Amino acid sequence: MTIDIIHSLEQFITSSILKQPGRGIGAHEPILTSGLIDSFSLVDLALYVEDTYGVRVDDTELNPSTFDTLAQLADLIQSRLSK
Amino acid sequence: MTTFASRLHSHLSRTPEKIALTLIQAGRPDRSLRYHELLREAHGYVQVLADRGIQPGEVVVLILQHGEELVASYLGAVILGAVPSIMPFLTEKLSPERYRADLAALVSVTRPAAIVTYDEFEAEVRGTLQVNHSVRTVILTSQVVAAHEQSNSSWEGLKRNPRDVVLLQHSSGTTGLQKGVALSHQAVFNQLSAYSRVLDLKSTDVVVSWLPLYHDMGLIAGFLMPLLEGLHLVLMSPFDWVRAPYRLMQAVSQYKGTLSWLPNFAYNFCSQKIRDHQIQGVDLSSWRAIVNCSEPVRPESHAAFYGRFHRYGLSKNSLHTSYAMAENVFAVTQSDLKGEPLVEEIDREIFLTQRRVESSTGEGKLGMMSSGNPLPNVRIKILDESGVPVPDRTIGEIALLSDCMLRGYYNRPDETKKAFKDKWYLTGDFGYFSGGELFVTGRKKDMIIVGGRNIHPQDLESLTYEVPGVHAGRSVAFGIFNEEQGTEEVVIVTEVEPGEAADRESIAEAIRQHVTKNSAIALRNVKVVESNWIIKTSSGKTARLANKEKYLIEGLQ
Predict the structure, then answer these.
(1) Ordered structural domains, chain A, with CATH
(2) Is residue B260 helix, strand or coil?
(3) Is A15 near chain B, with CB under 8 Å?
């Protein structure tokens, strides 16, 4: 399940945010501290998670101390889904 | 004779109980400060600065995040008569090495006597200071305590002359830090007096802003103007806004905000990224002017914003425009608040090829939105390449003369001299006049403007040459306007040798990472191509516009 979430997040980020559908993102690759995702796109990511999984990621959580990789974000989504 | 200190002192004695500032911070309750409370906080900084021997007229660099300490230290420096200058804080996107280099450059040119920062950042700051630096003291926020007593003797700033430099504003951009705009008390008050008449400011106005204070729009419109004019300022940080744009709408509704300034992209950003459930019950009817400035103004962005928020009470004639720059303190023009900014449809072909405008209703028309009329204290000329004024509806360089211009670029007589021609300030922007209104069409140089930030393509190109496998002179950077976002995005095209073709993906990725880490600019696309792709001029210089056209045409194929 977590693998599926990681895959769908990767798809969304590469196609809609980076506009480089061919690029892959490793599950443990930093996406915030590396500058891969611009702060202007964070809200897109939060809205995608909300629309796709019905899980809210608060704006105060959109920083590397909450998640910096797809695996961490997927875990966060997973933990809120199971509640 | 008014100075910053005398104006603040007058608010303190006349309206000490009036709320001067409300800080909105994500995850924390809002915090409102009355004038006497705000100035008491500022006095904590006055005391420390004075104890450390900082003299009136000396420069104090503030390296703090957007918030209470930044506001208090800024005002503290002003009350003491020192000259504050804000250095943007380190962000995750920017590499620490690049940040240190920028700070070192700022310190070497500006020669501050003190730096104010956080305890955690002290080592970083001290590590930057080079031999023979000017900094006599580094003040940490933990060393500051709010003063209980305010004696008149601590208001050294009251003795400043209105012609003295009151602040330095380091323009945003990739290399802007070495060029600090020095403004006098008088220039700032001349701007405020002209601008407040045009805006018809009243003491009941409430300014809501998320703009960074190191940029002229945030520093003047979103900080100093409300505090000096006695308006209520509701301030949130750009960091919070970009993660939760709906907070701007909530703030306007809650505090009955009347005025805001936004760069063009923010209209698109808010229109697209705010959900109805986030702003349920919000009432925007108090918002009487939302002023679009600091990047090219687009009628489509206003239409999208109005379309999205009119059902929340947004009034159609609240959407306005201004042309502004730090060198004129802030506003140069402002659209008439009684109407809507003029939009004219012009012929695209004639505009692009003949440097003039003609109305058009047919195919290939281009909507141009006016930035309004010059402020009453500002004169504008449009000049051709030889410096001769051109007729109406002809495009040329915008030059201006006013009583609120910069004293000069601080400690940079060379740059100051270059910027003026017979007292007129040459803006480097292109535009035209039509019916007494100014239309700004673009930059004279190949400057890229991303979200209100000016970026020199040369700087980004130089950064690519630091990537292994990329050779000097083999990259070109340019901006491409993104309709959806309402701002420009950066594209870099880099040539590599045929043998390195297999590595194109990894070179592109390395360029993307290196440029972003060293400029804090996210790149939309890095295209790695074979030799001889880049078009050069006959003198061997990179022809950015031609390369941009080539890139766009290839994208269509």
Answers:
(1) 2-81 (1.10.1200.10)
(2) strand
(3) no
Q: How far apart are CA B248 and CA B264, in angstroms?
A: 15
Whether B93 and A19 lie within 8 Å, measured CB to CB:
no
Reported as a single tens digit per residue, the pLDDT across B51-67 is 999 999 999 999 999 99
Q: Which residue has the higher pLDDT, B202 or B514?
A: B202
Superfamily, domain B4-243: ANL, N-terminal domain (3.40.50.12780)
Token pair in block for residue B54? 């900082």
What is the pLDDT averaged over residues B405-410? Answer: 93
B68-84 confidence digits (pLDDT tens): 999 999 999 999 999 99
Facing residue for A34 by CB, picked from B27, B273, B513: B513
A42 contact B CB<8A? yes
- Chain B residue with CA closest to A40: the answer is B242
Calculate helix-pair angle for B68-80, B35-51, nearest 10 degrees: 70
- Residue B267: which residues within 8 A CB-CB, separation 6 or more? B292, B301, B302, B304, B305, B486
* Span between the terminal Cα atoms of chain A, in Å: 15
B435 CB neighbour count, 10 Å cutoff: 11
Highest CATH level, class, for B344-443: mainly beta
